[in-house]
Structures are given as structure tokens and as C-alpha cells.
Amino acid sequence: MNPPAQRRRRPAPARPRPQRRSGRSDGRRPSAGLWFLCGLFYAAAGMILAALAGPWVWLGAALGAIVQSMALAGPSALQRFRRLTANLLVLGNLIGGTALAVALSVALNHLGTDNIDNLTIGRAVVEVVFYSLMAVGLAVLCSLATAALGDRLLRHNKGSKTSLILVATVLAGLGVGGAIGLLIG
User: Fold this and answer.
1) pLDDT by residue for the chain (185 residues), tens digit each?
2) Which of 115, 123, 77, 73 has its CA nearest to residue 98?
3) Euclidean distance between CA atoms 28 and 15, whole angstroms
4) Is the Cβ–Cβ distance between 146 and 38 less than 8 Å?
5) What's this model's pTM, rounded to 2 decimal places?
């Protein structure tokens, strides 16, 4: 006689294991490093503005940074709003970032050259482009740090409290950098 046919069982599909997160990188609290980085970028901007430009340029940059901080245009923040409101917040962020970039560009382009007799058109264009790109780069770093910190803060605070904390961080960074810039200049 033939032995009875045995059924073969198929193995159960493997379940993916949840990945464990270590440390405080799970987003529960804003990291002190991100806060320090945001303040450091704005301190660098404040130092450049105070050392190289007049007070009206510094005021324009401070107003732009405040508008940018209040817009809260990070990815997590924008998901909370409808399309039109989110687009208006992005517009506010762009206006604030542009004001900061223009003020930094004006300040950096005040450096110029000491010897105007040896200045050529090509060298002047290269200097203007270089300093303008430096200003835009610093403004972008400030914007990215502000958006990231704002998103982290929004996980635990309301929008108005988060905006207030960001504005205080930005103004403190600009103030400390401005004080250092005045000591240098």
C-alpha cells in the first residue's frame, strides 16, 4: 500500500520587525544641537550685518527673519493647513528669507577693494557674485534651520508659542552676532 499523502505547510510570511530608535532622535523633544545651530547661523548673519553695514540693513534683516520665523514653513507645519493658507505661509517665508539674503548681500558687498586703481571689471563682477552667493547660502542655512526647529517645536507646542520661541531664538542669535560684529568693527 501506498503511504498517505502528506500535506506540506507553507511557511508563514515573515513579519517586519519594528525598528528601535535609540537616544532622543525620535523627535519627542527638540534637540539642543538644532537650537544651537539655528542660533549660530543667525549669529553669523548678525555679525556680518553689524560689522559691514549700516543699522537700516540690520533692521531689514531682523524684520525678514521675524517674518520668516512667524511663517512656520516647515514640511510638518504646512501639512496642518489648507492649500491656500500653506501657500501664503510659504510666500511669507520666501519674503522673509529674501529680505535676509538681500541684507546680507548688501553687507558683504560693502567689503569692496581698498585699491580702486587696480580694480578691473572682471574682478569686480567675480567679487559681487561670490559675496552674493555667500549671502544667499547663509540665508538658506538660516531658513532650513528655522524650518527644522519649527517643525520639532510644533510637535509639543501650539503654533503661536512655537513662533514666539523661534522669533526669540532668531533675535537672540542676531543680537549676539551683532554685538560680536560691533566689537570687531
Assistant:
1) 556 666 666 666 666 655 544 444 444 555 788 889 999 999 999 998 888 887 888 888 989 989 888 887 677 777 777 888 888 888 888 899 899 999 998 888 887 666 677 778 888 888 888 988 999 999 999 988 888 888 888 887 777 788 888 889 999 999 999 899 888 87
2) 73
3) 27
4) yes
5) 0.76
Query: What residue has cell string 533675535?
Result: 171
- The CA distance from 149 to 6, in Å, is 62
* Contact (CB, 8 A) for 15 and 150: no
Reported as half-sphere exposure (CB side, CA atoms, 13 A), residue 131 has a value of 20
Rounded to whole angstroms, the Cα distance separating 49 from 180 reads 11
| CB of 38 closer than 8 Å to CB of 168 | no
Give ∠ CA 50-168-139 in degrees, rounded to 5. Answer: 50
| CA 91 to chain CA centroid, nearest Å | 15
| Residue at grid coordinates 537700516 | 56
Check: CB of residue 29 under 8 Å from CB of residue 54: no
Rounded distance between C-alpha atoms, residue 78 and residue 141, angstroms? 19
CA 142, CA 37: separation in Å to the nearest integer?
9
